Amino acid sequence: xxxxxxxxxxxxxxxxxxxxxxxxxxxxxxxxxxxxxxxxxxxxxxxxxxxxxxxxxxxxxxxxxxxxxxxxxxxxxxxxxxxxxxxxxxxxxxxxxxxxxxxxxxxxxxxxxxxxxxxxx
Length: 121
Known about the structure:
Elements: E1 2-4, E2 12-21, H1 23-38, E3 43-55, H2 57-70, E4 75-82, H3 85-97, E5 102-106, H4 111-119
Parallel strand pairs: 2-3, 3-4, 4-5
Antiparallel strand pairs: 1-2
């Protein structure tokens, strides 16, 4: 399930993930990304991960199509909020690989810090 949420950052795309992601849910978030890119905006993303239940195959196809068409250059900052320690390590690794994207993992208790991270340029 993917649920859009309001974190009080006007230009951020913010959502909560819980369980399995459907193709329809993936398409909805990627459509928001595309709209911002077409307006010339950099993507600022807040992702709150409650639980990971995978994604439908067609949802992953949509994600790969987005990456093929748009790449990663439109992303500016990404905050991932989760209680899962291993996911923090993946975010740290991605931050090192994708040097032009500022990525950081936060614990559930650090939601306020995640929002501040996204507000600061």
